[in-house]
Design a protein that fits this description.
Blueprint lengths: L6 H14 L6 H9 L3 H16 L2 E5 L1 E4 L28 H11 L6 E4 L9 H14 L4 E4 L2 H11 L3 H10 L2 E3 L10 H6 L7 H13 L4 E7 L5 H18 L2 E8 L15 H14 L5 E2 L3 H4 L1 H7 L6 E4 L6 H4 L10 H10 L3 E5 L5 E4 L2
Parallel strand pairs: 1-9, 1-10, 2-3, 3-4, 4-5, 6-7, 7-8
Antiparallel strand pairs: 10-11
Helix pairs in contact: 2-10, 3-11, 4-5, 6-7, 6-9, 9-10
The structure holds iron/sulfur cluster (SF4).
The site of iron/sulfur cluster (SF4) has 11 residues, from loops.
Length: about 375
């Protein structure tokens, strides 16, 4: 007697076989993974892929988040960080003010500044150059991972320089990598709905393409959990995968779970743990050409981050010191975390903590 195997189980089986044979998943596979509720199989498969790529090592960095300005000309519907010039709580720090702040809060082992901020049109491009320069002169040993692709596009607009020239100017004063923000969902329809009035899809990709061509290795993100369809998430991953095939410049993909406080985006709930784990696992399966998937503990919490380490994640970001953007939008996690807590978190998932630098060189392995 033949026992009928349901179509869904057959489709999952064919994906399992493809992944184990090292074959690339296509759009249809990705959409199926998002529509099935078989999280355990997806997670297990993503874990297998991650173990092949990274073994049991999970990476973190001693870093510090810095925000030179929260004044922004854009009005992304999900953003609760931006302010108008002159509005209560708005600020634009000079290089000296930032140095004073850093001197007050820095840990002795911080090896990277993660710098992002608003698109402030009330100061010239030179302000953004001078900000990096001041930091680099005072802390030459700390790597500057600064600005999103959307910020680079904004700098290009206010300076009249092209992307290559903007990035080169910033490299002259110490820039070594770009942050991954500004990607949101790489769909023009999504960007219209969410009022993402900054770099569009092709501009986001072009900035990273240019940075990679200039020898920078960068990060990339996906802000999921609002009006986008599951298909949009897969199309987002496919666009990143295609650019990575061309440049091999992305070091890590970071799924960012949307936070609930967004005055204009009508988001009333946090994403489910189920959806957060799926984002990690599915991106691990779709992005076969990116070495690391990051579980961003700030947005999904430390406990879910531990589980994510068994479903494809191989990086937990870093110590941060004082995160502001996700917290303005309602993140419940601490604004920073200690190295000891990160090590505890990783070991708690049965993995080996590895302290890294900006380029994923190993600094210390905590066996
Ligand atoms: S997400 Fe960035 S670009 Fe958009 S409004 Fe907020 S600070 Fe401005």
């Amino acid at each position: 007697m033949n026992i009928a195997i349901p179509t869904e189980a057959k489709q999952m089986q064919s994906i399992v076989e493809k992944v184990r044979a090292g074959e690339r998943l296509n759009r249809e596979d990705g959409v199926f993974l998002y529509h099935t509720d078989d999280l355990l199989t997806i997670g297990q498969l993503a874990n297998e892929v991650n173990l092949q790529k990274n073994g049991r090592k999970v990476y973190f960095i001693e870093n510090m988040s810095l925000y030179f300005t929260n004044v922004c000309e854009a009005h992304c519907a999900f953003c609760n960080f931006r302010k108008d010039q002159g509005q209560d709580g708005s600020y634009t720090l000079s290089g000296e003010e930032m140095i004073a702040y850093v001197e007050q809060h820095i840990h002795p082992d911080v090896r990277e500044f993660h710098i992002v901020g608003g698109h402030n049109p009330h100061v010239p491009f030179q302000y953004y150059v001078d900000s990096l320069k001041a930091l680099h002169e005072r802390f030459p040993e700390v790597a500057l991972k600064a600005y999103t692709a959307a910020e680079i596009d904004f700098f290009s607009r206010i300076s009249g320089l092209n992307y290559r020239e903007v990035i080169q100017e910033l490299m002259k004063v110490g820039l070594v990598s770009l942050t991954g923000g500004g990607a949101e969902i790489l769909s023009d329809e999504y960007r219209k709905k969410m009022k993402v009035d900054k770099a569009d899809v092709s501009q986001y990709l072009e900035v990273h393409r240019t940075a990679h061509d200039l020898g920078l290795r960068t990060h990339t993100t996906m802000l999921y959990g609002s009006v986008e369809k599951k298909e949009d998430r897969i199309d987002h991953m496919l666009q990143i995968r295609e650019l990575q095939d061309e440049t091999n410049g992305f070091q890590v993909f970071i799924p960012l779970s949307m936070q609930p406080i967004s005055p204009k985006a009508s988001i009333r709930r946090r994403n489910s743990a189920f959806d957060d784990l799926k984002a990690i696992a599915i991106s691990r399966l779709m992005l076969d050409n990116i070495k690391h998937i990051k579980a961003y503990f700030i947005n999904i919490g430390t406990q879910l981050t531990q589980v994510a380490l068994t479903m494809g994640a191989s990086d937990v970001h870093g110590t941060m010191v004082k995160e502001r953007i996700s917290h303005a939008a309602g993140a419940l996690t601490p604004e920073g975390i200690t190295r000891e807590d990160l090590i505890w978190l990783i070991k708690g998932a049965g993995r080996i903590p590895v302290e890294r630098d900006t380029f994923y060189n190993e600094v210390k392995v905590y066996e």
